[in-house]
Amino acid sequence: MGFQIERITLRQIRMPLVHFFETSFGRTYERHMVLIEACSEGLSGWGEITAGENPFYNEEWTESAWLIARDFVAPRLLKHTFESAAQVADRSAHIRGHRMARGGVEAAIWDLEARRNGVPLAKQIGGASRAQIDCGVSIGIQESIDQLLQKIDTEVNAGYQRIKMKIKPGWDVDVIREVRRAFPKIRLMADANSAYTLADAARLKCLDEFNLMMIEQPLAHDEIIDHAELQAQLQTPICLDECIRTAHQAEQAIRLKACGIINIKLGRVGGFREARRVHDVAQQHGIPVWCGGMLESGIGRAHNIALSTLPNFVLPGDVSASKRYWKRDIISPAVEVSPRGTITVPQGPGFGYDIDHDFLKSIIVREESVV
Fold first, then answer.
1. What's the chain's average pLDDT?
2. Is 166 assigned a catalytic role?
3. What was the pLDDT predicted at 82?
4. How confident is residue 138, by pLDDT bands cut at 50, 70 and 90?
5. 124-344 — its CATH code?
6. Where are the domains of the chain?
7. Residue 25 pLDDT exceeds 80
8. Which residue among 68, 146, 260, 274 is least packed, with the fewest CB closer than 10 Å?
9. Is 265 known to be catalytic?
10. CATH homologous superfamily for 3-118?
């Protein structure tokens, strides 16, 4: 039976990080995220727009996401009858780009539909193929190699199954050499966030000696062809992140042999429907995928857990414990990782966690409803 969205509420929240997180883009000390609540017939579904505070990862940022969701996405969805949340993406498909804004709203409606049906979100999206997901952890650029080694030691002892370390020119080969010397057997990968060009191919080839699982997005966000040229020179698989926004781009990258692995981020590809399509294309071609993170609150983290239950998510993702980032999360209970480096997939309706409304109210920067 069809349903209509009666109200969409946007809430911008401010959450300080437990520890700064540095990539080749710069340091982040706190997050400003836009939460979406979609309401229908007395039920609410929740989503999170995962855009950063600045347009550095992609063209989106907190302010643009607020405007796009409020002024362009929400009006197209309200009072329209949907037979399934899978139809939501088509209503905003005419908006060029801004996939994080569109995807955050779409995710809220998937959560709403799961709650309407009384099933876990993982099942609603076609996942739920596993009761637990395997977890890795992402470690930003540190102030010293010793500090990095201490952080890796902490996360390895916490059970995380894979360590991802951020790299950039000047913080790459020599640093990874020290990490490998200290941790010769851990599953290790490097994430460049587009910090290099093809002119750096010889330096990136030096990373082959360290037995990395992958090098993530070494070149520019829109350079699939250059990644194909680089991959031909490397033994280490390239994992594409920023380059892949659609299933079609995934198909192109695979045909060009530009990567051996794909990172799927729910916001980057515009929500669950396109994420499933990217997943399916990769699976058809034997390309493994994993779930990337964007320093989400508990709501976005819960959505990532659901996404990671799809069958081709065979590598540990960036879905880690709430306490790594937040002194207090906005969901209850907080996301926890077992000593084996796994997260149990919640079985309650929707994304499976309660929202800590009292705490949420205390960190809201602004709030607005569209009806």
1. 96
2. yes
3. 97
4. very high
5. 3.20.20.120
6. 3-118, 124-344
7. no
8. 146
9. yes
10. Enolase-like, N-terminal domain (3.30.390.10)
